[in-house]
Amino acid sequence: QGKQKKTRKYAVMKRMISLRDHRINEKDRAKAPVKKKEDPSAIKEREVPQHPSCLFFQYNTQLGPPYHILVDTNFINFSIKAKLDLVQSMMDCLYAKCIPCITDCVMGEIEKLGQKYRVALRIAKDPRFERLPCMHKGTYADDCLVQRVTQHKCYIVATVDKELKRRIRKIPGVPIMYISRHRYNIERMPDDYGAPRF
After folding, report:
1. What is the first-listed, main subcellular location in coarse terms (predicted)?
2. How many whole angstroms separate alpha carbon 103 and alpha carbon 161?
């Protein structure tokens, strides 16, 4: 006759005695939280997120020609694949002068990609591109672009990355430039009347 096998119940935790249990000594017992009575005459402080003064509802008043366009790594790569001239195509899309801006993080990302992306690196070093220095640690370009766009609402972000687009859509007043059907398109770009154009 062998031992009877007992199957343990799935995900059973050891039961621990509560620190408020009456069986624990008075000095070791956890004290019940004491509720403070609210003073009706006291001034109630509430933290309200500060919205930038440049936004008139969803309309960004800081956006105007010449447009400053933050370029992402994959945007340059997709432009090469689609055989598009970056600056000229931007001007054709927006009907105004465009200044492509490239951050140190994006530049570092292209350099890390190596020999395969040497054409993209040569395009990024074009004198028509404006270089923006980065003061933060690390070279993750997506975080850098999101942080820069949150602080300064004067940029249009050029990207093809779905994840970055999703993050930027949450920031009001920041248009996104993307590539589709071998041409540049703009998403959420306000027209002269302040209504978003899709």
Report:
1. nucleus
2. 17
